[in-house]
Input
Amino acid sequence: MDKQQIIDTVNEFLIEEFEADAADIVGGANMHEALDLDSLDYVDLVVLIDENFGFKTTSEDFQTISTFDDFYAFIDAKLKG
Output
């Protein structure tokens, strides 16, 4: 899966699951603020990553992720693993 496919897949499930506006999902934007995430939302993200990309994460993995670009890079690195 290339970087653009990762971005497309992530953006699709973020828009669907979190009812996000596509215009708010910008690479350098703060993911937490743009999506108004709470602790339960991170649990949902863990499930969505497993369903869409086939690997397990924990909510602690998100401590180093602040922007959407960080999130895409995290997934890319895990897939290349």
Helices lie at 3-18, 31-35, 39-53, 68-80. The two ends are 12 Å apart (CA to CA).
